[in-house]
Amino acid sequence: MVQTLQNFINGAFVPVSGEESLDIVNPTNGEVVAKAPISSQTDVDAAMSAAATAFKTWKHATPGQRQTVLLALADAIEARSDEIVEAQHRNTGQVKAMIAAEEVGAGADQLRFFAGAARLLEGRSAGEYMENMTSYVRREPVGVIAQVTPWNYPFLMLIWKIGPALAAGNTVVLKPSDTTPESTMVFADIAKDIVPAGVLNFVLGNGATGAAMVDHKIPAMVSITGSVRAGIAVATGAAKGLKRAHLELGGKAPAVVFADANLGKTAQSIAEFSFFNAGQDCTAITRVLVEESAHDEFVAALATATKGLETGHSDDSLNYFGPLNNINHFNAVSEVVANIPDYATVVTGGKRAGDKGFFFEATVVDGVKQTDDIVQQETFGPVITVQTFKTEEEAVEMANDVEFALASSVWTSNHGVAMRVSRDLDFGAVWINTHIMLTAEMPHGGFKQSGYGKDLSMYGVEDYTRIKHVMSNLDA
């Protein structure tokens, strides 16, 4: 049955003002599973007005009251995990066990972190910095936040957006990706009995809907996780209204492998980290830089590890990773592989997997050059490249020689090498002998074309606050 979705505004599901809609397609088989309305300016106005009204009271909720709401949300999403998983699987084709553990389970844990963080916001201690004048700092919520989430991790990115925003006392209008809205709307149904009306609002739609949110006069801040192109559009729109922007964008993560690493174990780990979620992860390893003397042994081990990662099966439990999100993205990834230079070699993979849906084989491409598009541009699929280096300095230079700067890793048994390379890698996250691991207590965010602002951690919560100086005359 094809479900028709609705917006969630001021604590209730409501129809949109127009008739236009989008087909939501299951990427495992290409079938339409839902219809999502395209919200107009009128619908965005309604959501923003509800959020603005709710902010008048929510900003005065005590940290303990905000904590109680977030803890209740965490419990409720765990209780309805199966429903969230099924809804998201229909839209993403992700492996169900992965959704349950890495999005719903992790999301509940991260909500509980943000619940605790609500009670730990701090500022400079009060003091007399001028004679007879006491100064102190207030850390306040920013206001209404306009947020846009991506299609690669719809539920987890929803938590990363609303968790710190609500913990800090803001209200939210959020638009999920136009291809993966269903798990967000299940969350809306969960939230309606827990979160005060108007504090959380969800509008469905396309890029024009998102632009209307960014351009709207009410939000004080806009936050997006998405492509560089989308991030630039959001930053440009926000700048016109002098709104704050929080951008988590693309990546082109290198794994720098030295010859002294355990090559077999490293190859297995890199394959698993690279092709997790079909490589549709801005932190996923996309470039392997291996010391020249270890190249042949490492590539052989990487090919073996990669061939063991199954996809394309109609039985979800047999897949290590699911399909690409949509037909346009499938065609784009296919084109990247088809257009590799003649001097490069597809070691394994490189074509469609299975006989239906948008599955693509885990693919390793060897012999590429630093200037190749496949090295410089984001593929966002199950495709990784292999290059060689001779010296530590060359490895760092090659790793940093892209426009993205979100995530990276170094693989070595030499402590000094690990410390020097992790220092010199120009990325917001550097892992040593591992990759992609995230924890609620540590910040996540990038530099350069990967955007700015931090998700997770207290840094993420502070991004959703503003600082006010208050000075009091002691002689008044």
Automatic annotation (TrEMBL):
The keyword Glycoprotein does not apply. The active site is at E248. It comes from the Bacteria. PROSITE patterns: ALDEHYDE_DEHYDR_CYS, ALDEHYDE_DEHYDR_GLU. The lineage of its organism: Bacteria, Bacillati, Actinomycetota, Actinomycetes, Micrococcales. One of its GO terms (molecular function) is oxidoreductase activity, acting on the aldehyde or oxo group of donors, NAD or NADP as acceptor. This is Gamma-aminobutyraldehyde dehydrogenase. Gene3D superfamilies: Aldehyde Dehydrogenase, Chain A, domain 1 (3.40.605.10), Aldehyde Dehydrogenase, Chain A, domain 2 (3.40.309.10). Keywords: Oxidoreductase. InterPro entries: Ald_DH/histidinol_DH, Ald_DH_C, Ald_DH_CS_CYS, Ald_DH_CS_GLU, Ald_DH_N, Aldehyde_DH_dom. The keyword Signal does not apply.
